[in-house]
Design a protein that fits this description.
Helices cover 26% and strands 14% of the residues. It contains three helices and four strands, in the order H-E-H-E-E-H-E. A hairpin with a 2-residue loop joins strand 2 and strand 3 (40-42). The longest helix is centred in the N-terminal third of the chain and has 9 residues, at 5-13. The radius of gyration is 11 Å and the shape is globular.
Length: 69
Amino acid sequence: MGVNIMKAVQMTMGGTKMTHKHILNNGNTKFNFICCKDGKLINEFGEVLKDTKPYHAKDMKTGWEPYRD
C-alpha cells in the first residue's frame, strides 16, 4: 500500500527514490521518481521541489511507492 506525499518526502531524505503511478504513466516526465540530491528534494522534472502543493493539485496526496530501477 502506498504512502502519503509527506511520508514519501521523508523517505527520500533517507535515500529512497519514490514514485507514483501518475509519474510512471506520464511519458513527458524527465525522471520517474522524486529523490534527495545534494541535500535538495528533486522532482520528476529535475527541478528543486519547494513544496508539495503541485502533487496535492494533481490528486497525488497518497499512493507513493519506492521506485525500483
